[in-house]
Amino acid sequence: MRQKLFEPEYVLDVRCIAGLNGIRPQTGIGVEIGALTTLNSIERSDFLRKHYPVLTEAAATVASPVLRNMGTIGGNICLDTRCLWYNQSLTWRKACGYCIKKDGDLCHVAPGGTKCWAAFSGDTPPALLCLDAEVEIAGPSGTRRLPLHEFYTGIGDNYRKLEPNELLTRVFLPASSADYRGIYRKLRVRGSIDYPLAGVAVVLKRFDGHVSDARLALTAVNPAPVLVKGVTQLLNGKIMDEVLAEAVGELAAKTAKPLTTSALTPEYRREMIRVFTKRALLAAASN
Ligand SMILES: Cc1cc2nc3c(=O)[nH]c(=O)nc-3n(C[C@H](O)[C@H](O)[C@H](O)COP(=O)(O)OP(=O)(O)OC[C@H]3O[C@@H](n4cnc5c(N)ncnc54)[C@H](O)[C@@H]3O)c2cc1C
């Protein structure tokens, strides 16, 4: 609001809505997390750390402890997309002729294009995608539930399927996603506070030393958090080693489409996706 990106007539504090706060395991079904649950509560939950460790790892890297005490999982899922040309003061943006995402009609990142490439930069959504999370949305006509991967549009200036009169109320993690090894790796300028400029979440299950299931998702390198396709097929039935982890790293780097939305170059961010993917897979498969 200080940067005049939003000038709302009213600001609504949703923190007191009863029933939307807390982590509720449901035997045989999974776990329900209220949208108002703070990131700090998620980071410190023994249940989530034991059964869904990729989520606690990702939550623990959001911003700083002070912000995690206030910030919620719902807010992290609904977080606005970010860009070097957008997250600036009004004076700065005016001097540059604004941009597609706010008040203008050009994209400084992809000149000539009509699509906004602002990057989705939340830390928990890639972890949630790996866990097959679903979200519940409440509106005037009732509630609807949809897989998290359907919640994002992939368009930077219209990034989520949420009407102005709708509220994200709950997140569900299925029992079938429990007890995977989970790793989250994140590139940021200052380790103590910053948003990710590239982020990789990995979950992996092994049987008898062989991978029996694996999923990988990226953040901060596309206008939406994305699951990398083809990972399960590439890894299933195999024993993880450097060559295999590198092959998946290549796949992840091809899925990442970083543009000049941040101070770090797209080339570096893409390379770090490759490196983090390899490291995360090897860590997840280590004993
Ligand atoms: C200095 C700084 C550093 C940060 N670093 C990181 C970082 O490293 N990683 C990261 O992921 N985030 C980061 N953030 C962003 C923020 O702290 C977190 O994303 C936090 O989870 C936001 O939660 P919130 O409840 O405060 O959401 P808000 O900021 O209040 O909301 C974010 C958006 O979601 C909407 N919204 C919130 N809750 C709901 C709901 N239940 N239903 C529908 N819409 C909703 C709001 O209207 C708004 O559009 C940072 C923020 C700051 C200020």
How would you describe the overall organization of this protein?
This protein is of the alpha+beta class and 287 residues long. It has two domains: 23-80 and 123-177, Uridine Diphospho-n-acetylenolpyruvylglucosamine Reductase, domain 3; 181-284, 2-Layer Sandwich (Enolase-like, domain 1). Helix content is 29%, strand content 20%. It is built from ten helices and nine strands. It has helices at 39-44, 46-51, 53-59, 65-70, 73-78, 90-95, 124-130, 231-235, 242-255, 266-284, and strands spanning 23-26, 30-34, 134-139, 142-147, 167-174, 181-187, 198-207, 210-219, 226-227. The protein has a five-stranded antiparallel β-sheet with strand order 1-2-5-3-4. α3 (53-59) runs antiparallel to α7 (124-130). The longest helix is centred in the C-terminal third of the chain and has 19 residues, at 266-284. The chain is globular. The model has no long low-confidence stretch (mean pLDDT 96). The structure holds flavin-adenine dinucleotide. Flavin-adenine dinucleotide binds next to α4, α5 and β5.
Short description:
This protein has 287 residues and is of the alpha+beta class. The protein folds into 2 domains: 113 residues, Uridine Diphospho-n-acetylenolpyruvylglucosamine Reductase, domain 3 (2-Layer Sandwich); 104 residues, 2-Layer Sandwich (Enolase-like, domain 1).
